[in-house]
Amino acid sequence: MTETVIVVGAGSAGCVAAARLSEDPERTVILLEAGEDRGHEPELRSLNWLDALGHRDVFYPDLFATKVQGGEARLYQRGRGVGGSASTNAMLALPGLPQDYDGYAERYGLARWSWSEVQPWFAKLKPTLVRSTDEELTPVDRALLDSGTVLGLPDDVDAYTPEDGSARLYRTADRRERRSSLELWLDPARGRGNLVVRPNSQVDRLLLDGARVEGVILADGEEIRGDQVILCAGVFESPCVLMRSGVDRPGLGRGLQDHPAASVYFSMKPEHRAADRAIPCIGSVLRLSSSVGAGDLHLLPLHGELLASTPPSHGLLMAAVMRTRSRGELTLNPEHPLAPPIVDERMLTHPDDRRAMREAIDAVATVLSGDAFSEIVEQTFIDEHGTPVDALRDEEVFDRWLSTYVGDYFHAVGTARMGGADDPDAVTDELGRVHGLEGVSVWDASILPEVPSANTHLPVVMLAERLSAAHRSGSLV
Ligand SMILES: Cc1cc2nc3c(=O)[nH]c(=O)nc-3n(C[C@H](O)[C@H](O)[C@H](O)COP(=O)(O)OP(=O)(O)OC[C@H]3O[C@@H](n4cnc5c(N)ncnc54)[C@H](O)[C@@H]3O)c2cc1C
To answer: By CB neighbour count within 10 A (0-12 exposed, 13-18 middle, 19+ buried), where does 196 fall?
Structure first.
């Protein structure tokens, strides 16, 4: 054996990294995961995301985030266990827009992460996805697919292209079950003699000899030695492992971005109330542009029995701002450094983000009053008091509502971002190697410098695929 690589965290990125790196029989790969190995339980395989969402044992119970300044800290959903968030997410798969990646090149000097560089990698991932068929659409999906025209946009465009309009979603699934990082990458690799998968192994910090990393130290004190450590512990934990190891780059933990999202609920007319648990509960999206960005808003529908806190037999339209300028940060919990960090998202602090959200909610109201939704919707409401969506026309009501109800879209990135060594806010170089240390890299959502205009699983898989290839060849291809 010539090299031992320790991969920390078995989620979207870690499953890909461990599988790809262990293709070389000369390399030993040890995949360490804090949670259990239960990614094959039926709830996590189900095509209906609500089954996974209801399986609380596979989420971190104690990760909280303050969404907006002055607001309460609320639970942040994050998958825990082999499969990570890739086994608990809603399976929606989008690559993002050319301007997202061209922005990485322009604003952060990351020319090798421009759209022309990443597009071929997204093209290779497309055959692993399925696109919603007519049979898989809920009544709410069908109404949304007919609603682009209400906003002057085309209906039923291809979501994998940058065009605005209503679109059927692609999913990390086949026609029967989830097919994500665990199923497509890690499972086929598990029989290899040079790959060890260790659940219930939370990494505390790096094992260091000066600036040279020699392995990791687990929370129970066990030392595991290796030549390279690749952190894939996710946007909240990879920076914490570095912080607990004494890394103090100014940008570490800063630069956190997510998509702010807020939902308008509605009760359905009786003939549309039954949601079939077997079909995916989200099958479409409507992409549009605000006055501050192109393709920067998503309207996403959901149909079915949602959360315990909301009435059954209803649906919602969620408005999400997909290009954001606001940034938050995370810090270690001073009393319990091994517990989840303190997360302050500071969403909507930038006026453009607030303006984009205003326009997104106006678009929701317009769509809900169009013919397609009037056919199926009985009543709209924006809170537990049954306040109708029209109340949001008032700016004061709108701001109060946002401060209480705006959430994230589970798409956090940016807490250990890529950039040059002379860029004080950069934590890693363009290959994910941590500046100032030798032998440790970050390959997960933490290193994306801005949140792309997409649900983040597929961009993270693209990142891990590309960095795995670079690890083999020595440079980005
Ligand atoms: C509820 C939910 C719904 C989502 N829906 C979608 C969607 O539909 N489409 C989409 O594209 N994206 C979606 N996302 C976002 C997407 O899943 C994430 O962006 C992506 O999975 C992040 O990948 P990652 O590898 O960075 O982290 P993760 O997949 O979160 O993996 C990190 C792993 O590291 C482990 N870990 C953490 N700390 C340690 C430690 N110290 N030692 C060892 N292991 C550790 C964790 O337990 C976890 O398994 C959703 C996310 C959630 C939570």
So the answer is: middle
